[in-house]
Write the structure tokens for this entry.
Amino acid sequence: MSNVSLQQDGALHGVVVDLQGVPVSQTTVIVCNRGRKIAETKCDAAGCFTVPRLAGGIYEVVAASGGGVFRVSVVPNTREHHRHSINR
């Protein structure tokens, strides 16, 4: 997974990639918070996905090719976003 970010409007964006960094198309992406599934979507042809209306927090984002745990937040009153991978 790469380029995971939370936008000012609460949309979580990312790209699913394989081990070589090549985008993976049409794969299912599941977003969990505190062990509970809160969203499911599919990647487009370029491996991109969007999950709307999320608050800043810690999310587990999982796809068939792997996943990770991400802490995402939006800096109030800016367009800047932050993303941190959390190693398990």
